[in-house]
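Reagents: none. Just compute today. LuxR family transcriptional regulator.
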Amino acid sequence: MTALRLLLVDDDVLVRSGLRVILESEPDLTVVGDAGSGREALAVAADTDPDVVLMDVRMPDMDGIAATAELVARDPQRPRVLVLTTFEDDDYLFRSLQAGASGFALERSDPDSLVGAIRVVARGTSLVLPDLTRRLIASHAPSRARGPAALPELTGREADVLRLVAGGLSNAEIATELFLSRETVKTHVSSVLLKLGARDRTQAVIAAYESGFMTG
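Predicted 3D structure written out:
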């Protein structure tokens, strides 16, 4: 089993130390670096090639939103960014997702929930905190068009899949809902992401709401 490579980014050294202890106790996770600011994170990420970056939002020098946007600009596919926050500021969280973050988790989450969120982000087969993520996007994404016609490139089945992805369902749940195999669902999800120009499910959900395909 190849361990997921993690980069920890937080301006509090004690938080980084605590996260390292928790995460390195897992056999499938390894911390390859840490940073105390967004700008430092960019340099460390270039040197360590992480799979997932755990990113604080509010930091000196360069905040987590700007650092996330820069990481995505460098490579649209990896690393995935999981935003860590001690507060529930919807505007900051939505801006992080817009910048390209794949999900978010509260720093006060219990270790099992945090580890689970990292694995979800790495696999990309479902949303992190799906109900909360969906509500956040639905309430903050401005609609620029109305109805399914806003996404004319999708086939009927792809539209069904996007609707369920935007509803927070995992690949396994979509397979059950549509009476399809998981492999078929995975193929449809990949096609939807490609057509929408979305790097992951979270970005596809944002596109679905911003286009008017999904409404609150």
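Residues 182-196 form the longest helix (15 residues).
Action item: order primers for follow-up constructs.
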